[in-house]
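#random but structural
TW: two for the price of one
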Amino acid sequence: MRAGQVATQYKEKIFYKIPDNFMNAFIKILTFGSATFSLILILLFYYLNSFQSHYYIDEKFHVPQALRFCEGEFYEWDSKITTLPGLYLFSAFLLGPLNLCTITNLRLINVLCTYLNLFLSFQIIKCLNGRSKARTDNNLRRYKLYLIAWNITFFPPLFFWFFLYYTDIFSLNLILIMLLFHLYDKHKTAAFLGILSICVRQTNVAWVAFLGIDKCLTIIDQITNKPRFTDTLNVLPCLRTLYKIFKAEKKRGTLHFLKFLQSTCKDIFPYTLALTSFIIFIIYNKGIVVGDRTAHVPTFHLTQIFYFSLFVLCFSWPYLLPYLAKFVKQVIYKNLISISLLSFFLVLIIHCNTLVHPYILADNRHYSFYVWKNLMSRFAIFKYTLVPVYAFAMYAIFKSLNHLRLLSFVAYILCTCIVLVPQLLLEPRYFIIPYILCRVYQKEPNNWQIVAETLTTIFINIAQFVLFINKTFYWEDEKYPQRIGW
């Protein structure tokens, strides 16, 4: 090896050693700081409740309904509520026997669920990323995994609801528990938890289906012993191979074939049963929505996927931004015709399918109102200028998840579309679970990405609560001051 090469390697080693040591120390500092914040979370809860002691937006429906359930009045239902009563039943079971059903105690449930989300996120991240082989890095690795879990739990559009009585945090609890049992191959328990999650938010059925598809793909890999079938879109060769395997098993006798089917399908059946139960519910209920259906009429709103991709880019930018150079070099420069056609297609969708729910235009208690008022409505060209951002965001999301089976990624996109596309209302709360599933499945990050994500999470959370506390206004038909939130 030449002396110049040795000198260059030595300089590179010294150059990278200092930032790594700095980042490692900073990760430890952030870990202890975030852990301290988690311990005093209850103090923030009571502080925020001192400002918002009365109902906040939809709490005027949720809290009275929960109080009725606490009093045993299970047949009285507010027709304005569109979700199933899972949260109210859980609250009544937890607080009713102790006669503790007050607005503050009902809100406290979400504080407990926030702590549970932190634990569940840590376990899921640890399970998905495996264990470190180097003992010397075990402590640092635990710090990193904890920070990733902390960022997921305190993800701003989710964390905002921790001090209020909404379904979002409890719904995520059940989804994360379902995912954890799925990863542990406890599929009966996972499917049961999936049914419970549907009882809180009906759209959670999509994530039960996602895990069922994921397990089905795993079984196909095991049967065929050819994982490339689920890593590509070559469906026909896969079906032919499966047909040959099933035909061979059937030749060995009916009893043997039935045992083969039982052993093959036993882990898929619980998810199938959960999905079948939901289909029966839809037929009986004549729709997915309970209560008032006028505000949630199913529609075809494809631009929701574009909004979601922008949403992911904003909050997960440290993980997606590194793909920008590759996007410009490999996608734009080398595939100019393809990217031009794709851009035209995106512009056409935006032009024909940009829909606006009346709530967006009328309710100034949501961030989306101000985005629409000050940007989308004011400047007609603005929605088209976002096309390159949408294209990059979707490309970067794919690249950040390309370590998954291709069919698993396709299943995730399909389930995300099932959740978002029928929604007319642009509501960041609908993006929470798709975002968090995207986040937990992303590749294990570098140190700087964890630090950047943590600082972003801290900054946005501080900003949103400062704004919530200090910015108030009044509505003519509301007695108490109104505040801005997600």
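TW: number two ↓
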Amino acid sequence: MALRILGVSCAIFMGTWVLTGGKDAAPATTTSAFCKIIWLIGVPCTEVNSAIVTQIKAMGSYTLSSVTSAAIQANHTSGVGQIESVNFTMTPTSVILGCHVQGTSVSAVWYSLFDNGINFCNLRNVIKGSGLYKAPGFLEFTNEWLCLGCGFSAC
């Protein structure tokens, strides 16, 4: 039984390590609610970038800060005036000629640690609204350690 628990613990640790690229799930100074999601999408990153930017512009609660071919930075303002920093980074994949996308959303205030999945919804709503979730080869990776509140969010 102890060996089984050790095996499961190692698998969870390795899965989290792989998803975070060997880095912490949230920035070291983060004491606020945060979310990190990784998507694999079977379309070129240029198309992914364009779809995300178009969707952010269409959503009134988002403000674009910076757009490059590899990264998109924006801010989201919730209905109660809370601000979250939302970022998407894109890296081309050679296996399926698609795109590896990493999305992060971090609340600006310390007392929002339990945000009922707002940061998860910030990312999920952009991807869903853009239609990228219907793209060939779409896969989404996250868990409660990487994305506080993802399990009980209601986007």
